[in-house]
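I had to read the description of the data format several times before I understood it. Each protein is reduced to its one-letter sequence and a matching series of backbone shape codes. The format is easy to grasp once an entry is in front of the reader. For illustration, here is how one protein appears when written out as sequence plus structure tokens:
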Amino acid sequence: MAEEEKFRTLREKMVEKQLVERGIENPRVLDAMRRIPRHEFVAPDLSHLAYRDSPLPIGEDQTISQPYIVAVMTQLLYLSGHERVLEIGTGSGYQTAVLCELAAQVYSLERYPRLAERAANILSRLGYENLEIHVGDGSQGLPDMAPFDAIIVTAAAPALPGPLRSQLRPDGGRMILPIGDEKNQYLELVTRQNNRWEIEQMVPVRFVPLVGRYGFQEHEPHTKPDDDSTAFV
């Protein structure tokens, strides 16, 4: 009980100091991040760092994003609770949990099977049921599940992937993603109105690369996902 109270206090401090004081004001986003036990999504030996203002490693050369970046990207989607959301890059599953709190249904696509399975186990243990986690090439999205009301991409692409554009709901669908090279990236907010696309450049960021057919090419060997997407949850 003492440890649970300690983490609850750290979450509250994270929300107030890292989010509210930096301009995050959506009450649904703030409440979700107050509730979700971020320390459950990192390795036990890193749990004491889970609420710090920084990303943390989760394996496979991937990271759990800085809390502020999670909040910024989620707030920009303006989720009301009725949406079908596609997440590219399940990673630790923390951003997935935030989306599950705020949307009706979440489809998450992860390149690395071990990360996908671990995230699925954590999310299931925490009681989330409104999601499916798939393994596959994130740059190609999940065309069989489209269209999506919102898409969030948690890895940087060199340009907006065409398949993700086409999977966004035509009448007001929103997508947030980092665009750029390895060193210079910006969050871009994409809004679709039929065949018209509005793109706003937001804040500078630093994400791992989106590796795939419509992203960056792989330079080092990793465990490859199967050709077909595999659902864990």
